[in-house]
């Protein structure tokens, strides 16, 4: 199974991705995690990305497309994958289409977690409170506001992009975690819905 998880920061993509990994034996590909690993390892990409990420802006499309392309070639992706945090712009979605075509792979679904914006700030604040010393350097009020603005402007249009391709499945992301997971499984089991 090959999926994209779509939703604003704090929508619960990471949580649901982990559950899908357990249930379906596929891998989670989070571009945020990959970039944070590059920052930590101080690779050239990491050095370029750090300041951009800290401001809540997007790193250049070419950079993320390249990391995703390389990652998709790893053997553990053969059984399927969940893209979490990618694509984030229409050009990234177009690049992904081209990539999948050259690799002869098809997407099964794009699952959008639809959430109420007021709840997002609370969720991220909670995440910050719980993460103690491991707090992400972009989990502060200013960067979060920027990430939400960027989401609205650059990423939200992807819902329409994938609706037109017949791939979009919208899920109420405000329900309790297990209910969201059950709903996701429901739409995945009902192709063409
Ligand atoms: P969030 O919690 O906002 O969903 P992520 O962990 O997915 O955040 O990503 C954190 C940051 O990493 C983003 O704000 C952005 O700077 C960068 N990033 C992650 N994925 C992408 C992408 N596909 N394109 C551009 N930048 C990205």
Contiguous uncertain segments of 5+ residues: none
Approximately what portion of the residues adopt beta-strand conformation? Answer: 5-15%
Q: Class, according to the CATH hierarchy?
A: Alpha Beta
Structurally, how many domains make up the residues? 1
The CATH topology corresponds to: Rossmann fold
Ligand roster: adenosine-5'-diphosphate
Structural class: alpha/beta
How many helices? The count is: 9
Helix content: 55-70%
Overall average residue pLDDT: 93
Which strand order does the major sheet show? 2-3-1-4-5
Largest sheet features: 5 strands, parallel
* SSE string, helices as H and strands as E: EHEHHHEHEHHHEH
Rg on CA atoms, Å:
16 Å
Count the strands? 5
Per CATH, the superfamily is P-loop containing nucleotide triphosphate hydrolases
Shape: globular
CATH architecture level-2 label: 3-Layer(aba) Sandwich
**Terminus-to-terminus distance:** 16 Å
Structure description:
With 193 residues, the chain is of the alpha/beta class. The protein has a single domain (2-189), classed as Rossmann fold (3-Layer(aba) Sandwich), CATH 3.40.50.300. It is built from nine helices and five strands. The chain has a five-stranded parallel sheet with strand order 2-3-1-4-5, with helices on both faces. Helix 2 crosses helix 3 and helix 4 (61-72) runs parallel beside helix 5. It is globular and about 40 Å long. 30% of the residues are buried. The mean pLDDT is 93. The structure holds adenosine-5'-diphosphate (ADP). Adenosine-5'-diphosphate binds next to helix 2 and helix 3. Adenosine-5'-diphosphate binds at residues 9, 31-32, 35, 52-53, 56-59, 64, 85-86, 88, 92, 138, 147.
